[in-house]
Design brief:
mainly alpha, two-stranded antiparallel sheet, 6 helices
């Protein structure tokens, strides 16, 4: 029965949805968490590679690896800024912009540039 459910239900259910259907946890979410952790610790290349692995295994996640890593770096930068560590925060924002150039910073606010 579970095998049948795995065949007819899309692979990219949220962890909560998988729990509701009594399905095993999706291994791709562990890869996503690993990618986020790698980005958090500064291992950018490994983080991008981990998100690319998820992208290849489960395209329904609609991930953009560089964008996902940049989001983690921005979140880290915001946390540092809230602690008053402005220089460290700025470095995280700059690193995010290097990873994904669509992120633009100015006037103290970060945004995703819509211009391609």
């Amino acid at each position: 029965m579970i095998d049948y459910a795995n065949q007819i239900i899309p692979r990219c259910l949220t962890p909560k949805q998988r729990e509701q259907f009594f399905l095993d946890p999706e291994p791709n979410y562990a890869l996503i968490e690993a990618g986020e952790q790698l980005a958090q610790t500064g291992d950018i290349e490994a983080a991008v590679a981990k998100f690319k692995q998820v992208q290849a295994l489960a395209p329904c996640h609609k991930l953009e690896p560089e964008y996902e890593v940049a989001k983690v770096l921005i979140k880290k930068g915001r946390a540092l800024a809230k602690k008053g560590k402005i220089e460290a925060a700025v470095e995280q924002f700059k690193q995010a912009q290097k990873v994904d150039g669509r992120f633009k910073f100015g006037n103290g606010v970060d945004s995703l540039s819509t211009a391609a």
